[in-house]
Amino acid sequence: MMPLLNAQLFEPDATTRATVLAIHGFGGSTEQSWVKPGLIKKLNAAGFAVYAVPLPLHTANAGSQVSDDSLLKAFIGQLSAQIPQLSPPVMGLGFSFGARVIWELLATPDQQLTSAVLIGLGATNHMDAAAHEIATGQASAHHPARLFDRVLAHTAVPQDNLLRFAQLTADNFEPGNDTINAPVLLISGEFDELAQDSDELVTAITASHQICEKLAVPGRDHISVLTSGLARSTAVKFFTRHTG
């Protein structure tokens, strides 16, 4: 099995109060999602360490050989094994597909995250559309809008790796069937096409008797929400209230 974890630990200058497990989105990187927008800096200033993990097949040394369809399951398994080694309490932070990964961790019965902030997550998996766009250069019939043009235009990940990742993660996402085991903050842009059906996530969280907060950032879309000062400050405040 290929190595899945190529993580970076960003520690605060003062004593660590908790650790945030952060996972970026499809085609992205830790630098794009968390460093440049300033969220890691803001979390460090509030006393949080950030353990940032790239998605599989998204780093230069990740390799491209995957022998079966267990990529997501294996990744979640390695994350679950890593969490007990981080400075507790540990919270989850994910953007787009990274938020999907955090959601899957939260839905694990013995999961160890005390809270989570999920950015740009909806109730539909769009990896089939991504695979179609990469393979053909055309929008799919089920997704007439070319949802991933901006991602593909700015990614540093090899196209073959992105296609393989999208093909291996194009499963059905059925969050309504999940029991969520920690408080969650959902953040999305007002014009985020990929998170328009996030109300289904709210239903699943509240049905699990967990706190669910939701922020729609005015004037932002799926990508630009990451640079929102309102999104950053709201995320840090949520983590501060739910450190376990």
From TrEMBL:
Entry keywords, A to Z: Hydrolase
Protein name, entry field: Alpha/beta fold hydrolase
A Pfam family this chain is assigned to: Abhydrolase_6
Record has GTP-binding as a keyword: no
Organism for this UniProt entry: Rothia terrae
GO molecular function, one term: hydrolase activity
Residue intervals of the AB hydrolase-1 domain: 20-224
NADP as UniProt keyword: no
